[in-house]
Write a structure and sequence with these properties.
The structure holds 2 protein chains of 2 kinds. Chain A is about 15% helix and about 50% strand. By secondary structure, chain A is mostly beta strands. A 5-stranded mixed β-sheet of chain A has the order 8-1-2-10-9. A 5-stranded mixed β-sheet of chain A has the order 3-6-7-5-4. The mean pLDDT of chain A is about 90. In chain B, β6 and β7 form a beta hairpin. In chain B, α2 packs antiparallel against α3 and α3 runs antiparallel to α4. Chain B is globular, with a radius of gyration of 33 Å. The C terminus of chain B is likely disordered. Classes of the chains: A mainly beta, B alpha+beta.
Chain lengths: ~140, ~725
């Protein structure tokens, strides 16, 4: 069984999110900050009259956002809409095989939000789980 | 009609439509039995459902048809034209009875059913009963729609509103095209109508909320060994679907509390001279655009003395202050975190968490909870919730550079820091403000939210419940807006200071503040934030908003007539002949311009309310809200003057300012009567009806009211479309 993925980059690392989980890829022009939240929560943005909470995935893995463009994948987790901000979300691929397991060698930060790795044909990409990203974003300081 | 029955009605109607063609084919050719299975399945299903729902008449009909149809199916008998007609008559009767179930119409006599059944059984002498079709009321037609579709529709309407706003902005740059502006106005009112209709489509009866209660009451009372009879009324009152969902938990909590804490054990009830079985009534009713759900028990009520002790134990208040509070004020402590009246913790309740959460949830909806305690005789809890959607009116305020929304229901008044009557002083680490003899704690919004460069200019006086007044210092106060509140993401909610998020018509997303959460975050103890007002004055004062008019003249207006203050670009004003209109939120409002408008930039604009008509009143600068004694206002038919800080200030009257031709209106003359009553009650009524009011001599005598020209009809004034 083949899987479709949306490809992006986080802190130089190629990452993939299952296309089925991604509502759309959006360019964020403006965000409203939310006081008192963890630093990975950038703020709120509006897309087609819906309000999304913008999460910076680089901050979740303990790095800094490194792209001048504000591009994000919009996902729904537990009924809430989020925009997962990543650098260069610019490709979608079909991987013929299920993701291969990953181990602790990728580091705790990455392991916390990844479910496996896939071969994109131009190198490996870590498969990120939106649920795990949201879970980590809520507790990063 | 309960849930199951209405489901049965909808299902039966759908199946009837589906077998329609089979019936027609069979009627045309009784020997054709190919689709007999469909018809058989229909009557079989109806029979089964009716047995379940105890609808004996329909069940008997379906049973008779099923018996005959089964003989055709297995080939032991053959249908002829007469028997087909008889079966179709039965199916028609089932359809009719089903519709009558829904419309609550009067059923035809039951023996007419017997005749139909006899006819199908082959009794040739059976007379076909004639039913006058005209007497059967037409049911309102219904379709079932997935909730998701309604939500999609609502989102599309919101998108439509955004597009309209975009269009309005574009049109503004091409000024003077009155045809286009008129079309835009028409579009706006159609969009508003559409939004109302979609909102109506989202309404659900509170039945859905009530349906869980009988089981809950039975289980809870059983567990506690109490005997409770539940009476529910008004379950047909309708409420937005989302509100129904949001009210579920608070309602369940209150009902559980009533059974656990309120209602006594049967033996105690008998000792107290009550019947062993207690009565718990849950009533829903609609008043205007509010729905009230009243949960009333005949138990022991709140024991005020014990609650006072508990509140002191929980450090919510100190003993000295507690002694000065009224019983009703003490009763409010059931909403304080950590206070419970239960003697022991049970599996049901009594852990002291809950009522504070319940109240926070209800207030987030823009609703309120009220208590009516009858010590020894019971407690009534009133849940009030707005009817329409989760649209609530909010006051937008700023801290740092950011806008936040406060539910209007919690805002008592707004005062400017630095105004003569507002005295803010430091008290230890905190600050307090003394306002007309009342000392309130001040919480700075900027400080609580760690906002940069926050410089408070106004205090918003917040009343989060009876007696709990405090002041929130904000950098500026923007305007009142109607917004749709959505739940915030878990990270946002975890801060404890935000109750939800919203997308206003203009600008980006805005966060809705949770006033109780702010107070908790600011760590003000319950003792401090309680109002220290000791005396309750009879209301003999009037609130006035003072401002400098465009012509520089210092004026004032009654605060009651002010609907809101907005800063509006001067580009939005346009002059047509003698009238001026302002384009606001996608519609036009009449504007009264007294003096020259600035040539560019924003101008503060007071929105005045005259009856239900809004007028925009641009001014040079809004000063302050002041309170003066009613005796300090002098008025006659030509206007009013207020005495503020020893100086006379003209009072702008919304009615006087109403930009319609006064001379065209028929005149109503009132002679005699209490001038205060005439000014405050009679005059608005008469002018709202389109008459002009003249008074000749006032006094204690009963007033005489004369209409100058009996034939003249009032000039109908159109309400500015919103």
């Amino acid at each position: 069984m083949s899987h479709h993925y949306v490809l992006g980059t986080v802190n130089g690392q190629r990452v993939a999110i299952e296309a089925e989980a991604v509502e759309s890829v959006i360019d964020i022009t403006e965000t409203t900050p939310v006081p008192l939240v963890p630093p990975s929560v950038i703020g709120l943005c509006a897309v087609r009259s819906r309000v999304l909470t913008v999460i910076d995935v680089a901050t979740v893995v303990g790095a800094a956002y490194d792209d001048p463009k504000f591009r994000a994948a919009s996902v729904i987790v537990d009924g809430h809409r989020y925009a997962l901000r990543m650098a260069r979300i610019d490709d979608a691929i079909m991987a013929p095989e299920a993701p291969a397991p990953i181990d602790a060698s990728i580091g705790a930060n990455w392991q916390n939000i990844s479910t496996g790795r896939i071969d994109t044909g131009a190198g490996f990409a870590l498969v990120l789980s939106p649920e795990k990203i949201i879970e980590r974003a809520a507790c990063t300081d | 009609v309960d849930d199951l029955t209405s489901y049965f009605i909808a299902e039966t109607r759908e199946s009837l439509e589906q077998i329609g063609s089979a019936l027609v084919a069979w009627e045309a050719d009784p020997s054709q039995t190919a689709r007999l299975d469909d018809i058989f399945r229909f009557v079989h299903t109806v029979k089964g459902s009716c047995g379940f729902l105890d609808l004996v008449r329909i069940e008997a009909l379906a049973h008779a048809a099923e018996t005959v149809l089964s003989t055709y199916r297995d080939g032991t008998a053959h249908a002829d034209r007469r028997s087909v007609t008889a079966i179709l008559a039965i199916i028609d009767r089932i359809a009719m009875l089903t519709e009558l179930l829904e419309t609550d119409g009067e059923f035809p006599p039951v023996n007419s059913d017997h005749a139909l059944i006899a006819a199908i059984a082959g009794d040739a002498h059976a007379v076909q009963p004639v039913v006058d079709v005209a007497t059967v009321p037409r049911p309102s037609r219904n379709v079932r729609i997935a909730v998701d579709l309604i939500d999609t529709l609502m989102n599309q309407v919101s998108d439509l509103v955004l597009s309209r706003n975009e269009l309005a902005r574009t049109l503004r740059t091409e000024r003077g095209d009155s045809a286009a502006e008129a079309m835009l106005e028409q579009l706006s009112s159609r969009v508003a109508d559409l939004r109302d209709s979609v909102a109506l489509a989202r309404m659900q009866p509170v039945e859905r909320l009530f349906s869980a209660l009988p089981r809950l009451v039975r289980d809870t009372s059983g567990l506690l060994g109490k005997s409770v009879s539940l009476v529910m009324t008004g379950s047909d009152v309708e409420l937005d679907r989302e509100m129904v969902e949001q009210l579920r938990d608070p309602l369940i909590h209150i009902v559980r509390n009533a059974i656990d804490h309120g209602i006594e054990a049967p033996a105690d009830r008998i000792l107290a001279g009550k019947s062993a079985t207690s009565c718990l009534s849950v009533t829903a009713r609609q008043n205007g655009n509010q729905v009230t759900i009243e949960i009333s028990d005949d138990g022991c009520g709140i024991d005020i003395d014990r609650l006072r002790e508990k509140a002191i134990q929980a450090n919510v208040i100190d003993a000295r202050r507690a002694a000065t509070l009224s019983d009703n004020e003490i009763a409010q402590f059931i909403f304080a975190p950590g206070v419970s009246t239960a003697n022991e913790v049970t599996a049901i309740s009594g852990r002291g968490v809950g009522m504070d959460v319940v109240r926070a949830n209800v207030e987030r909806l823009g609703g309120a909870i009220l208590l009516r305690n009858r010590p020894g005789a019971g407690l009534t809890v009133e849940l009030r919730s707005p009817l329409t959607l989760s649209i609530i009116t909010v006051l937008a305020v700023t801290a740092g550079d950011q806008r936040f929304a406060l539910p209007r229901a919690t805002v008592d008044e707004v005062v400017a820091i630095g105004a003569a009557t507002v005295d803010v002083e430091n008290l230890g680490q905190g600050r307090v403000v003394t306002l007309r003899g009342e000392t309130l704690s001040v919480v700075s919004l900027g400080q609580v939210l760690n906002a940069h460069a926050s410089d408070p200019s106004h205090l918003v006086i917040i009343d989060s419940g009876s007696g709990q007044r405090w002041a929130l210092a904000v950098d500026s106060v923007c305007d009142l807006e109607e917004v749709v509140v959505r739940p915030a993401s878990p990270m946002t909610a975890a801060t404890g200071v935000f109750a939800g998020q919203t997308l206003p018509d203009v600008g980006g997303p805005m966060l809705l503040l949770d006033t109780l959460g702010l107070l908790r975050r600011a760590e003000i103890s319950g003792e401090q934030h309680r109002s220290q007002k000791e005396t309750v004055a009879v209301i003999t004062d009037v609130a006035l908003l003072t401002f400098a008019g465009l012509d520089g003249q210092f004026r004032t207006v009654r605060a009651l007539q002010v609907d809101g203050i907005e800063y509006v670009s001067v580009d939005l004003f346009s002059r047509i002949g003698a009238k001026t209109v302002v384009a606001l939120h996608g519609t036009f409002e009449h504007a009264v311009v007294q003096g020259p408008l600035p040539t560019s930039g924003d101008v503060p604009m007071i929105r005045l309310l005259d009856g239900d008509t809004l007028y925009a009143y641009p001014v040079a600068q809004v000063h302050d809200l002041v309170r003066i004694a009613t005796s300090d206002i002098f008025s006659n038919v030509d206007g009013s003057v207020a005495l503020i800080d020893g100086k006379p200030v003209p009072v702008v009257d919304a009615q006087e300012r109403a930009p319609h031709a006064v001379s065209e209106q028929p005149v109503v003359t009132v002679s005699g009567g209490d001038p205060h009553w005439i000014d405050s009650i009679l005059s608005p009524l008469i002018t709202a009806a389109g008459y002009q009011l003249e008074t000749t001599g006032t006094g204690d005598a009963a007033p005489t009211i004369t209409i100058a020209d009996a034939k003249a009809s009032p000039v109908k004034r159109k309400r500015a479309a919103r």
